[in-house]
Protein 1
Amino acid sequence: MPVNIPILLTWLRMALIPLVVGVYYLPPHWLPRSDANLAATIVFIVAAVTDWFDGFLARRWNQTSAFGAFLDPVADKLMVAGALLVLVQLDRVNAVVAFIIIGREIAISALREWMAQIGASKSVAVHQIGKVKTTAQMVAIPMLLYDGMLFGAIDTNYWGNPLLLIAAVLTVVSMFYYLRLAWPLIKEKSGQL
């Protein structure tokens, strides 16, 4: 396993995930709910920034690796899934929306793994629609974690829920896009069984 700054940032992101969840389990006299919301939001944003930064540094310093390519999406999916589960428990996100997003992540991860095993991983490389979906998620989730008025003018819940709904729709669209790309190989390989 290579050890470099981008991989350490990915490990840091994974270590931050339990903090996003854990702040809500502290006794209220230690951390009132409004403070827990702020803490979870800050931790999630820091984790999201490390996601961008580790990829940037890996490319810039030519420190990309197979292990980093594996670990980075795992950290991303755990970060989103952990935050969504907390938001469902706090009744800030509909469970169906969370299920769609998390289910798609599992399905596409499995598809990418299978495509890599048969030597066709480039067939399901990340597309622009996936990047837009990720951006919508990464803006919506901290808004929903914060759950209040930002700068006294922006109702984060009012804006966060529609953004997450947009992310869920893009999640389904991008899943069908990736499946359509992979379909010829799926048909070919399933015919060989």
Protein 2
Amino acid sequence: MPARLFRSAKADRNRFIALYVSMAVGLLVAAGLFVYEAKVIVADSLRDEEAFTVLGTANRVLHDLENAETGQRGYLLTGDESYLVPYRQGIRDLDDTILRLQQAAGSDERSLELLRRVQHAKTDKVSEMARTIELARSGNRAAAIALVQTNEGQLYMVELRRDLGLLLNDWRERRNAAMQDAHQRLVFGSAALVAIALLVCCLMVYTVYIQRRAFARVHAHSNALDQQAAQDALTGLPNRRRLLSAIDKLSNQAGDSRRVALLYLDIDGFKNVNDALGHSAGDVLLRRLAESLRAATRQNDMLARVGGDEFVLLAADCGDDSQLRDLAERLLASVRAVGEREYGGRFSIGVSIGVATFPDRVKSVGALLDVADAAMYVAKRSGRSTYSFGASSGAGLSNVIRLTR
């Protein structure tokens, strides 16, 4: 793996770790905040229930007093004992209601102070009502009515309503504050949840982006390795591996009726250049030859370097023998031209070419390479810088190798 790709992969790994740690920490922090907010909302709900109880009980105190006062006034005006029923009921319930109100108010100092004043006013009011009823029951109704007309009981009720009103206002404000706080925290929690969800989604999208980029780099590197494995490093032409793969692919196309030709080329005089000028000059010559041979072939044909000074041209749709002879002549001319241009006749540079065709001369596509290789050696032995056609044994054109010049 190249150092640059290794550094990139390491950086991507660090980004992954940072992203996952960030998401984990963010989710833990969010969970902690939500737990805290939930506790506060529960506390607000309890305060709301407490305030609701205080408000309901305080209103019950007024209701009991009003019932008792209504019974008192009715009895004083009519002398009917049935009016004492709501009076007695109100007096009985009043003590229990005051006790529940004190319990509901808890330890709040202001509420307890107001309740002490309410308790005192309630006691005075109850005492005033009891005195009037006793006077009336003893036959002194006029004195009882006169006591009522002094407005003593009304003053007690005014004090009691005032203090209960203050108590009610305090607890209404507390209830409203608790409800408003719970509402704000719910809104904040919902907004925070949406923000965290969006953030997590963005982090996940970014993570996917980094993963795709990392995979793309690895894939590109893998493709580059595959390309390098199938490409000759010196000339940039396909190598023997890629050539064999192309031949296998043609072999698998059983229904293809096209005529396939394979030309095996061996450079004549290359060893002299290597020995006289060195391997660097030989490499330069091979690159020049590759460029010239590629220019002399069709675009769809595969020109490969299979080793040393040997090249192979695979033509999947080669036409008749006359076209192959023209192609071989072009290849011969291109190689001679490179030798003249590079060395000015100092070295005799040429090429020996062996030609094999399927299905007329060779029984299978897989045998093209061996037959063309053998034909190339026949051409080399027959004087070099020429070409020969070869055929498989039993192909009907020759016994083993048939030469055509």
Protein 3
Amino acid sequence: MSIITRIKSAIGLEARSTIGVNGWPVPISASAVTPATAQGVSAVYACVQAIAETTASLPLILFKRNGDDRERASDHPLYRVLHDQANPEQTALEAREYMQACVLLRGNAFARIVRGWDGQVRELWPLNPDNVQVQRTASGLVYDYTKDGVLTRLLAHEVLHLRHRLGDDGVMGVSPITAARGVVELAQAENEHGRNTFTNGAKLLGVLKFPGRLKPEQRQAIATSWASQHAGGGNAGRTAILEEGVDFQALSMTLEDAEWIAARQFSVEEVARLFRVPPTVIGDLRNGNYSNSVEMARQFVTQTLRRHLVAWEQGIAAKCLTDAGRRMYFAEHQVEGLLRGDSANRAAFYSSGISDGWMLKSEARKLENLPAIEGLDDKETSAPDVPKGATSNATPAPLPYPSKQQEAAA
């Protein structure tokens, strides 16, 4: 620290650094943007939840390679940790949802790996990123975790570390709200403006004009009286009574004149762009219809979720499996789980796979958690009548529901 810097610090004129984590510029007021305050913006919370809960709810399966084929490694200890129970206190969904939210809000997520006597992963314990310090040593990365005043040093192979995007230091990830604090700050300012406006009864700001000069105690008494009678939502619409030549002159614009609502809507688009989430996914349906909503849902999987899913799969391979284990086992999300609530698309998906020959009927029943039927794949299905000019391998149209058949017959 130079002498000039020390003198400025002594008299309270020190200059705050405008360079934040990994070289990203930080405005002077950016200290107000934290993971907790950022979630106060509904668009931020919706984006984080859309990605975190979808990622966590997708089945994460540990597979075993069997030549060119693969099968579920349900007898492997890691299978249960990823699919069912991460640790004795948290389910797999709860642990993965928390860690994915940490990746989005803080840029990093950590989980302590607990291994059994055979070296296999038995538990994953998510760690609060605010309590983890990562240091680079001659032997590799070490993770210092502090809880209740107790410091625990963990080695690199003992921690599952997920990053949003690698920063310039090559160790820590950079979260969206760190890279673009101004977007969240603007949304927070608009929230605060609207809250204060409606707290004060959505009244116009203005000036009370008095014909004479007031004493300080008179100004204070009048301000207190005016606020008690006309501020707040409960006083909205009341008529002001002015005495002795007092005049009220409005100064500010209405919310409509300031286009506050339009600015709020634009902030939703800005935040959605920040997290790469289609606006329709977080409930912004102003420009949404059935056609583009379906396409945006597909983009949500391919362009938004894919990066996070791959990060999980590669992180598990790097930290939860040995070199020999990686040659035999691998973890993979089953994205088909997103079709679970759409019976029509799911039926068309299975029908197309069976008719085109890349899926067996028994495999479709297994994906639907239905009991196996002996010899189901050996049975030949009679081909439906093919209309003139149509191809024989076309996907048959779905049959109507029984209730609709009854209505047609009636």
